[in-house]
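Reading a protein record of the kind used here takes only a little practice. An example makes this concrete, so a full record is given next.
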Amino acid sequence: MKRFSLLIAGSALLVGSIAAQASPITLTIWTIDHPGQYDYVLAKAFEKQNPNIKIHVKTVDFSDMVHQLARAMATGGGPDITYVDNPDVALFASRHLLLNLTRYVKKSNVLDTRDIYPGPLKAVTWKSKIYGIPRGANTLVLYYNADMFKAHGLDPNKPPKTWKALYQDARTLTDPKKNVYGLTFCAKANGEGTFQFLPWVQMTGGNWNRIDTPGAVRALNLWKKFIDQKIASPDTLVHSQWESTATFVAGNAAMAISGPWELPRMQRDAHFDFRAAMLPIPAKNGQHASALGGGDNVILANTKHPEAAFKFLEFAYKQMPTVWNRFGYLPASRVAVKNPKWPKSFRVFKKSMKYARVRGPSPEWSRISRAIYSAVQQTLTHQKSAKAALAAAQKRIDSVTGE
């Protein structure tokens, strides 16, 4: 009788344990996506493969993500998983608000950090520890109107490769009578302006924390030359990347500096032969650089379900070969993409990803970015010389970084 009672008790414990294991887990994801986009699509697919894990997805506006996360974390709340723009990973990691994923990554049969491009890997790394997994990425290239090249006697198979050639071609392509500028780009007084300017600095050996180099001064003076000589529109100072490239799509600019997010619109609205090329470099045999855009999947340190959350991150990472065709993201790792859309442009973007550089990383990136885009604006509006503006920016950056 005693043995039977023990058997019943043991069975009850076993059933209770199984029930506990079978009880569903609910993960919350905050994202900048909308229904039908990346996180919503992957959450549904993940739930099908993992019926014991439910996912609630919430859309947060990109511009408000950092503030909403900060408010939620201050009260011990927030999601399990969230999108974070790549320069903001350092901000949250430095404050111990993100789960250190290093040990999870080391044990993973899905993730191998050696496959991730240097820029995206550096973006999720803080003090040698990994705090996020790239969703995908974007970067910058030079789009150009091949039809305009032909019409002005330029070889459309030879886009400009150096800054000198870019200036010369843009000047040749500028046609005030037809309201056509040679080049359009973004020098807006916000993070987009920094995003576009920083690669020009990096090509010359400078960086976000070495912004007052002779090469940076040369780059900024070239931007000023584009504006002053009306090779680029004055709207360059106020237009976003999307708005500035609209000038190119409409046929009012012969070349544009922008990213892969433009391709669907170009295919739909650009009634000409548009092509993509690498960003021109300072001189022949110089070094390439490009900007790293896109966001990362991170797990908050206070999650109650770290294993389940990391399982979703692994699942999302496995989709890397398909993110270009499905969501318009460049793969952040070295994977094969079958039958890529816009194959010629994709090859250029894929090459550019090798040189895509993270903004920072620094927990004070927003203040550093403000110093850089303010210097750009001051120069282009003739408030200061490029040398003086960048020297002032360097002082502000040094005060922020403590150098």
In short: The chain has 17 helices and twelve strands.
